[in-house]
Amino acid sequence: MYYRIRYGNIPLWATTNILTFGSLSKMYKVLPQSLRTKVCKTVDQLLDTPLHARLSIPKQGNQYIYGKQDLFAVVIGFRYLLSKEEFAVFKKRLVLEIGRLNKNLAHITESELFEQMGFPPNWKNITRYRLTPNE
Asked: Can you tell me whether residue 64 is helix, strand or coil?
């Protein structure tokens, strides 16, 4: 409200705190390609989260080797963005789909498939940890 009264508008960074993920996604879709590219270049890696540490994800140097720029990073993001119930449904569907896919792959085990997609061996433990509002 301060910015609206003082400057006559609300800055974009302030509105992102109140927009849903769906609204942000729609806003991203209408951006010109040049702006989308700039956004992707600045938001290309998931920041370290408490879940990285709680899952004891190994590091190479000071960088976690899982959950940074891979499919597991998306899963971690969903863990924070979705409700506990919604994430449980997502996780169940993901496991079912990967299991279905793996039945058609004779040369790789399910655990190897998950690892190739950037999942740590204990990734299913992601729902064991309670997230606090500040995380």
From this structure: strand
pTM score of the predicted model: 0.68
The residues with which 63 forms a beta bridge, in sequence order, are 60
Give helix then strand counts, H and E, for the chain.
8, 2
Which uninterrupted H or E stretch holds 128?
Answer: none
pLDDT digits (tens, 9 = 90+) for 52-74: 999 999 999 999 999 998 889 98
Alpha-carbon distances, residue 82 vs 26, 64, 77, 89, 119 (angstroms) = 18, 23, 9, 10, 19
Contact by Cβ (8 Å): 71, 78: no
* Cβ–Cβ < 8 Å for 76, 85: no
